[in-house]
Amino acid sequence: MLGELLSYWPFVLGLLATGVISGIAAGLLGIGGGAIIVPALASALALLGYDSDVVQHIAVGTSLAIIIPTGIASARAHDKRGAVDHRILKLWAPVVVVATFVGGLMAGLYTGDVLRIVFGVVALFIAANIVLPFQERLMGHLRDSALTHRISAAVVGYISALMGVGGGSLSVPTIHAFGASMHKAVGTGAAIGVFIALSGTLGFIISGWSVEGRPPLSLGYINIVALVLIGVTAALCAPLGAALAHKLQQRTLKIAFAVFLTLVGLNMIWKAIAG
């Protein structure tokens, strides 16, 4: 019995470390931390012997649930600094909620490998867009179009649900391309991530409600143990990241994040192909 309990300690410590890193990243870059949480949690659950298909769904769904407290902490910290554009938030929020909920409901229709490929391909796109901001050149002239904002919100919401991210990696460069400063884009992206996380979590609870082979203490595709351990730690660390975001060079941060996303994206695609 003691040996069995001790065997879970590396898993617990790994979840806590993931919470610290994802929380700082949430505040620093306006992301929900899912780009870190999903691969880390999926790997941890796979090491415990759970089915690879269920593992990816649990990682994605739980990541969205974790982003709720992380996103709230990050968004509040940015809003106190006046870095949330409430006009853009009002345009995006209703559409994001619907699109993310639909994505969460449909996630159960896809295999784990499909979710891995979606994560990997979009991660590579985001990394490329960070280094070579082609999105700004393509969309900058549409910054005053409410329809373009809403279409962007729908795309970001749906893809974010399938990836298990708060959408910041997609919404931040999009909002920046529409003319917002980088700090405003990061703060607004963090606030949008809260709506994505709330709606996506509900979708994953419903779509995974009766699925077999889930880890113990799972509500649909949401694992409560990982939610608590990573969520609390990440929420505590998010304000630290937000404070750092206003002190450090954004270009350096973006390049580092792009490198990280490239490695994670390639790894996800390799796992799906190698099977």
Chain-wise SSE layout:
Layout: H1 2-7, H2 9-29, H3 34-47, H4 52-80, H5 86-106, H6 112-131, H7 134-139, H8 146-163, H9 168-177, H10 182-207, E1 218-219, E2 222-223, H11 224-245, H12 250-274
Antiparallel strand pairs: 1-2
Helix pairs in contact: 2-3, 2-11, 3-4, 4-6, 4-10, 4-11, 5-8, 5-10, 6-12, 9-10
Pfam families: TauE
Keywords: Cell membrane, Membrane, Transmembrane, Transmembrane helix
Subcellular location: Cell membrane; Membrane
Short account of what is shown:
With 275 residues, this protein is mostly helical.
Walkthrough of the structure:
- The mean pLDDT is 82.
- The protein is built from 12 helices and 2 strands, in the order H-H-H-H-H-H-H-H-H-H-E-E-H-H.
- It has one domain.
- It is 79% helix and 1% strand.
- Helix 2 (9-29) runs parallel beside helix 11.
Task: Give the tags.
275 residues, mainly alpha, two-stranded antiparallel ribbon, 79% helix, membrane, transmembrane
Individual helix count: 12
Placed side by side, the strands forming the largest sheet appear as 1-2
Q: How far apart lie the N and C ends?
A: 34 Å
Strand content: under 5%
Shape: globular
Over the alpha carbons, how many angstroms does the gyration radius reach? 17 Å
**Category from helices, strands and their pairing:** mainly alpha
Multimeric state: single chain
Count of DSSP strands: 2
Summarize the biggest pleated sheet: 2 strands, antiparallel
Low-confidence stretches: none
